[in-house]
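Re: phosphoenolpyruvate structure - here you go.
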Amino acid sequence: MRQIIAGNWKMNGKFSDIAPYAAALSSAGTPAAGAPVELIICPPFPLLQSFCAALKDSGASLGAQDCHANASGAHTGDVSAPLLAEAGARYVILGHSERRADHGETNADVAAKVRAALGAGLVPIVCCGESEAERDAGEAEHVVRHQLAHSLPPEFKGLVAYEPIWAIGTGRTPSEADVAAMHAAIRAALVAQFPATGAATPILYGGSVKPGNAAGLLALPEVGGALVGGASLNADDFLAIAAAALAS
Ligand code: PEP
């Protein structure tokens, strides 16, 4: 199965990081389009255009970390999907739990952003995932199904990332059995919601993916890749995760 490894730099990185990172990807022979692994780098907005130029020959793609639901207007501090596309982004992460927590984004907000992304020709990577309290209460699958039902509009085409909130940036991950069970539940929900495309929608796992645990996670059924935060900041770690994907 083709694997997608996306790096979410969050609010990290600076212009001087771009050249060495891109050089590391290029010298490692970043897989070309159509290869069994696709790499996506999602840096902060201001780095997009320079990153785009630096990655030109690498085969890696670029993504943004959010977009506004409108194409233009009086929305101070926000960035539109068409501008992201113009800056070189092909993907956009939407509904990350940090956006939901820090900016109060609701499922309806996420659905509106998905529409905007699709309208601008971007591929949305829509995040879902339960809190630790929800998992402990046995509600994880219910919570995730509810997020998918309300964050994905009928015209959705893109990727889904399952990211248990308690695993993000903590060094903790669910057991492989729990990841497999959740991905199976997400697949069933996608097939029910999108009969024409749901079986083929890639489902990434995210939450403390590292070189040491990537092989096991990426080999699980219905895991179509990884959304990687902290470990994506280091090109060697990111490439090691990509290598685990190639071997899976
Ligand atoms: C993320 O924020 O999307 C993420 C998965 O972070 P980390 O890999 O650092 O847990």
